[in-house]
Amino acid sequence: MSTPPNLRLTAALSAGHRDRLxxxxxxxxxxxxxxxxxxGGYADRFWMVRTGTVTLDVHVPGRRPAVVDSVGAxxxxxxxxxxxxxxxxxxxxxxxxxxxxxxxxxxVRMMMDAxxxxxxxLDHFVGQMLAHRLFSARVRLLDLYAPHGxxx
Length: 152
Known about the structure:
- By secondary structure, this protein is α+β, with helices and mostly antiparallel strands.
- The chain has helices spanning 9-12, 15-22, 105-114, 116-145, and strands at residues 26-30, 35-37, 45-51, 54-58, 66-71, 76-77, 91-94, 98-104.
- The strands form two sheets. Strands 1-8-3-6 form a four-stranded antiparallel β-sheet.
- The chain starts with 8 loop residues before the first helix and ends in a 7-residue tail after the last helix.
């Protein structure tokens, strides 16, 4: 299921909010098979993926992590930085070479607190993104376990 345009960070924020956020971005180039973060680790940053694909996974005892979703160009990687206790709920690994903008979570949270309009816009965006990903997970589960698929 592809991501709707309104769930791409650059399209969801006003020009002023987007520019403000991008001023604190650090460009990164991440090689294929590099771990961004581990499930349970401290969520101190997030990324806006420019190119490439990142897989999201969950820990499975005695096995390799199970891939549950992927994040691609224009999408936000990471949301756990926004909610206490700031622990990653998933792991993430570069499936391909990834170019992204990296953001320091504490800096962005301070910006959100200082400018309630910016904070609301970013909170709203992350909420919409989470709702979309939850719906996508539901569709995948129906396709796997429902007698005749999701029919969607």
